[in-house]
Amino acid sequence: MITDRLTLQGWQSDRLNLWFLLGLGLLVLGAGLGLRDPWPADEPRFALVAKQMVESGQWLFPFRGGEIYPDKPPMFMWGIALGYLITGSMRVAFLLPSLLAGLGCVALVYDIARRIWDRATAFRAGLLLLFTVQFTVQAKQAQIDELVTFFITLGGYGFLRFLLTGGGWRWYYLGWFAAGLGIITKGVGIIAALMLLPALWTHREQIKQASRAQWLKGLAGPLFLLAACALWVVPMLLAVQHNPIPEYLAYRNNILFHQTVTRYANAWHHIAPFWFYLVNVIPPFWLPWSLLLPWMAWQSKRDIQQGQRPVILLVGYLLLILLFFSASAGKRGVYITPATPVLALLTAYWLPELLARRWPARLLSGLAWLLSGLFLVVGIAVLIKPALLAKLGDMESPWLLAISLGASGLLANWLLRRQPLTAILATLMLLWMHYGFWSFPLMNQLRTPQVIMQQVSQQLAPDDELLLTNFREQFLLFADRPLYHFAYLQTDEPQATDAAVWVQASARRWVLGPINNLSKCFIAEKGVNLGQRHGDNWYLFQADAILPACQSVQSSGAPVYYYEPKLVLNK
After folding, report:
1. What are the tens digits of pLDDT across the range 482-527?
2. Closest CA to 175 of 190, 185, 188, 197
3. Rounded to whole angstroms, how far apart are CA atoms 139 and 338?
4. To 5 degrees, how large is the angle CA 9–CA 304–CA 170?
């Protein structure tokens, strides 16, 4: 039988196990912290909103540039803004909420597994969660999903303490309160309460025998959810009532209805079929544990038949999360990140039995060898044929990164060839170390427009005015001067003509935008080519570059917003 004793069992001390997991988590999830700037698509948006909160003191209503950002509650941006206030570095601050949420999830998973099973299962659960690909990826990005995963996990933790460990009603109310915090982070926080549906079966006898007082206590749970939501909703509504300008009214209506119920029931983008998560997301993003799912399905059937409450609750909860997100037409892979802690708990419980079988151990070992071999082959191929680097622009020596990762992975797998679990964890550890400490600084310049905005500052005089077309949050994030911009949702079609009208109003005006869109009204040869970023060549133009056909056009009347940065990011 193939075993990995320490990896499977941990140490004989809860405190030592937990500190080891948190230390390892800080190394894996925090690798590269401070070594890169926010990268598109979502990170610059949230970082910009947070930066403007610090600049303006307006924390209730998120703004990006001169217009309000109506798509998300501000909870996640508050976290980044607080980190920015404390550290003074956006490179550190923008990743802090996800990092801390990831560590919090590891701690919660460890503690609940220890209480419902044992110390060894708890150690495995924390370790497996830390190396679930989707969970780790989200913890290393500035997206809302890791933070909402923490609140949903906290809610599930509270419900499990109430249902399985005799923790009392305070844990039940914590579950509801955490679900409410999840809602004001990202509307789907309510899925924490799905844990209670399989409990209707596992605890049916207690429900039948419940007294009137117990029923009243149970029905009071949603009040704690509403109390958590009220922490932000009530001040926001009062602010709108006090200052009912159209922007605030539209924000209130959009965030409370359009971005919640309507977005779920009648999604308008990211449309995917019902089976999207089962086919497109779970197999690659729940690696390496998705390789074990066929055997886990058999294990779950056996344990459910035996009436094991923890398994019934967790399997039911996992399936309900997948059903919840699959039922909506709008789907993105990150949506099911809250299911990864549940996956880690179940996998950890069954893992010793699974590794006693031949194929689960072989699959984990084979994946570790395959990943290492692929990186080595790719690195050698790029070294031999540099033309393969054409699409990577000016990235410096990526072949060395790939060869280093592949060679170190193969060495680790050879040394651990009789310990498949430890081998795959070591391979993933090397992957995340290389990704954070090596690829972050290697890729950063190519993923940000910082160089372009520096060239803009060198080209323009201090009192010149600048209009940004084809809105990109990352350009505003790196701006060190006031600028004008069109709305984020403004269509591309009228922007060239509107820019032509705007720039002719003064000899000190400039237009910045991608040539593919501005060529309708501007002559490329008369502009300043600033280089390529984000799939476009960016140019600066003045009025002398306008085509004759656009010199007397009428403006479409689209609003132009003004943004003046008061804090400039570290260069």
Report:
1. 999 999 888 888 999 999 999 999 999 999 999 999 999 999 999 9
2. 190
3. 12
4. 70
14-58 tens-digit pLDDT: 889 999 999 999 999 999 999 999 999 899 999 999 999 999 999
Cα torsion for 412, 418, 423, 424, to the nearest 10°? 140
Q: What is the pTM of this model?
A: 0.94
Q: Map residue 571 onto helix, strand or coil.
A: coil
Distance, first Cα to last Cα, the chain: 55
Q: Is 393 left (phi over 0), alpha (psi -120 to 50) or beta?
A: left
Q: Name the DSSP letter for residue 56.
A: H
Choose among 451, 434, 353: nearest CA to 399: 434
For the chain, the 3-state helix, strand and coil shares in percent, each to the nearest 5, are 70, 5, 25
Q: How many CA atoms lie within 13 A of 326 on its CB side?
A: 16
Q: Are 142 and 46 in contact (CB under 8 A)?
A: yes
Helices (H), 117-257: 119-130, 133-139, 144-164, 169-183, 196-202, 204-208, 212-219, 221-242, 246-253
Two tokens, residue 123: 């150690």
